[in-house]
Amino acid sequence: MKSILLAGVAAFALAAPAFAAEPAKPEAKPLIALPEPNVDFLGAGFDYAYGAKFMSDYIVRGISNSAHRPAGSVYGELRYGWFYTGLAATNVTLATSPLAEVDISAGIRPTWGPLTLDFGAVYYAYPSNHQQWFIGGAIPVTTFKNSYTALPTTAFDPSYIEIYFKPSWALNDYLTLGGQLAYAPNWNRYNAHSLYSEINAKVTPFANTDYSGLSISGAFGHYYLGMSDASYGGSYIDPDYAFLSTGILGTKGFKFASYNTWNVGASYNWNVVTLDLRYYDSNLTRAGCFLNTSDPSGNLVASLNTLTGQSSSSWCGSRFVASLSVDFSSATFK
């Protein structure tokens, strides 16, 4: 009997390590990941990112900045903790024929676990412009002022500053929600206020699988554009532009067309390469598009329409766009 008890104790002792070696089951991830507020401004240390993008069309907030032609861009960003500064350059086709669009940005990007808060400012620079002037007659628009009655259709330099807030919340591995508020006190140097507001979402249907690089995303935004300086004349968007608040005939300036814009598309990321196929559209009319862009192709019709100066542009409207981007960061080489 004693030998049987000793044998049982020995068997239990030998089996105990096996039971202890069983790995603990991982905790289930929450359905919604909650923000983790902190003040670790510099904890992330130094980081950088750079890359290039090739697009069949360069569409910004529903308007083509490349006249529906292919475009390319390069960018670089330096980060230290939450702070960052960036530089990007894109070839464009705009009314003033600038050499390029150069974006210079800086801001602070707190990371609270799944929640990222991005506060910053960007300077949109358009070097080497040719201001457009409306003079009427046989040559309705020129790049120089040759009459005291001529009105500018563009600013001498459309470069301007915009401040923004871009939050993003990764609720879980499958869904990320975001938004954007961007305000410019002097949009395109017309002395017009602008406010862009947007909500967006991204779904990763095959997260944590071999196909996790596939995602579907979309955005809906509203672009409010205000009234320009009176030196740019009146606007048919605002029928009462010729009357001051006192009722006396005069001018209030040039009222731009506000509008809604949206996009939806799918992208696939493989290592450092991302392919994106996207549909863009807006409710901006062709007349409103000409008003906001000063598209030179509409100048002749505008000069013939002497009552309102109304014309049209094809730089807005629905469009499918394909893009291929290559992105690197310090993590790429670790």
Automatic annotation (TrEMBL):
Residues 1-20 form the signal peptide. The keyword Signal applies. Keywords: Signal. It comes from the Bacteria. This is Porin. It comes from Methylosinus sporium. The lineage of its organism: Bacteria, Pseudomonadati, Pseudomonadota, Alphaproteobacteria, Hyphomicrobiales.
